[in-house]
């Protein structure tokens, strides 16, 4: 799959994150949600259908992904959901003027290690602006060598692992894929570490 096409598929991580949103649907009405790296936007669409005020985003350098976000909204009768071009690690007028958020969503954004720090830089900026907010993210375990632990520490962020069985997403039909390779999906919630050094 070419780089520019990553966002054109519903990956297993999106299904698992959608399941987490569905399991927490009663807490979503009125919440302000931003999905980063949205692609086909399954988690953001689920959040919007559950009553959240959603903004979808993907890289401003990937117009096909931004169009995919818009198409998903139209197909799901959500024509008023805004779609923004936000590139990880880049300060832009769109990022600086973003409305307050409660939840940031990201499914399978930790795909390429060269992007990890740019993603966490952007997340740190958003959490600093919205200290109560959380980043809900699912990711596929592709290599034991790929870790964000050091970057979380560097950016003063903490994470909590969310077991898939706790929201009924450990079923093979949810987290499986017809693509070759390992498809172990994990979920975590990232937030600002407290100033006391935790």
From TrEMBL:
Keyword Cytoplasm found: yes
Molecular-function GO terms, alphabetical: protein-arginine omega-N asymmetric methyltransferase activity
Gene3D superfamilies on file: Vaccinia Virus protein VP39
This protein's UniProt keywords: Chromatin regulator, Cytoplasm, Developmental protein, Methyltransferase, Nucleus, S-adenosyl-L-methionine, Transferase
GO CC terms in record: cytoplasm; nucleus
InterPro entries: Methyltransf_16, SAM-dependent_MTases_sf
Quaternary organization: Interacts with HSPA5, HSP90B1, TUBULIN, UGGT1 and UGGT2. Interacts with TET3. Interacts with STPG4.
Family under the similarity heading: Belongs to the methyltransferase superfamily. METTL23 family.
Protein name: Histone-arginine methyltransferase METTL23
Organism listed in the record: Atrichornis clamosus
Source organism phylogeny: Eukaryota, Metazoa, Chordata, Craniata, Vertebrata
